[in-house]
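Recall the central idea of this unit: under ordinary conditions, the amino acid sequence of a chain determines the structure it adopts. In this exercise we apply that idea directly, starting from the sequence alone.
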Amino acid sequence: MRGSMNDDLAAVESVSASRGAAAGRRAPPRAARLEVFFDGDCPLCAREVAWLSARDRAGRLRFTDIAAPDFDPAAIGLDRAALMGRLHARTADGAWRTGMDALRAAWAEVGLGALLAPTGWRGLRPLFDALYALFALVRPHLPGRRAPACDGDRCAAPSARGRA
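Accordingly, the structure predicted from this sequence is:
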């Protein structure tokens, strides 16, 4: 095991310089410290966003639905396939986090980083990263998912997708 819980929380909050070097390094709008890009057509993802939103009393998170008709992935330098393939989050300084790193960062911003800190410990991190990768593969096939009405990087208007 690694050092103290504080070391783990610091690791969750640190920004990887290599992730921030990619295109789309602009900081999230507003005063949010982390912008989370989620699939609004995924019921499990939408529930997680609602759960995190309810705990984000300080307004540190901003959520962007990548299935929304007005979302343009080119504006952030990514494509729809990459965003659909795994969770993405952009820090206030424009650095990117993906997969479990993005999830750990979001939980840390609402004060719950300690709960996910073990998933980042040296001995456990590869296991949790692999489990997340498996989840990312099956996520599009989970029951209750709305069928996406997307053509390339653009999605249809909500009325055309059967939303009320």
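The longest helix spans residues 125-138.
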